[in-house]
Specification:
The protein is mainly beta. Helix content is 9%, strand content 31%. The protein is globular.
Length: 179
């Protein structure tokens, strides 16, 4: 008697696994949603006007392993909420900066102390979209705070959270490229 997967070739099974991974990563498409821009790249630039009396906390992100200076690096700050992680309209801050091969530095602003997550992607063609191939596999690099590494699908928010306690925070996020 044969198992349910015995009739599938290893190549077809691998392709289906990659498609499943790509569908999870397609959720990163929420990163490209909306059009508000922040222009500064370092945290020493002035923060945007706060909507509350409390000062904003800054997050300086150094993006490592950027493969080229083509296009933009887009970074998005999310709150500690599994229901809204990587969802359209749930971001707290977003910035797009010119990519720099090797390392690119940028700054995000959090509304207050707390737990947050950063997701980013390398928009190499500058179309402000997280591009994928016909199978849904990302054709552009991506990364998350705490560097959870490659996953078949998006990481758990718990794997990406970091704390801001009022003082500026520095993160290093390594870019992952699947193509």
């Amino acid at each position: 008697m044969t198992g349910p997967c015995s009739s599938r070739s290893p190549r077809k099974l691998a392709r289906r696994t990659l498609v499943g991974a790509a569908l999870g990563l397609a959720l990163l498409g929420g990163l490209a949603a909306g059009r508000a821009e922040t222009s500064q790249t370092g945290c020493d630039a002035a923060a945007p006007a706060a909507t509350q009396a409390a000062p904003q906390a800054t997050v300086q992100v150094t993006v490592e392993k950027v493969r080229s200076s083509k296009g933009l690096i887009t970074a998005v700050l999310y709150p500690d909420n599994p229901e809204s992680f990587l969802k359209k309209g749930a971001r707290l801050d977003r910035i797009r900066v010119d990519a720099r091969e090797g390392e690119t530095t940028l700054c995000l602003h959090a509304p207050a102390a707390g737990r947050y997550s950063v997701a980013l992607y390398h928009d190499e063609n500058g179309n402000k979209e997280f591009d994928q191939d016909f199978l849904g596999i990302p054709t552009e690099g991506y990364g998350f705070s705490q560097n959870p590494g490659f996953r078949f699908g998006k990481p758990d928010i718990e794997e990406t959270l970091f704390d801001i306690e009022g003082a500026p925070v520095s993160l290093r996020i390594a870019m992952l490229y699947l193509h």
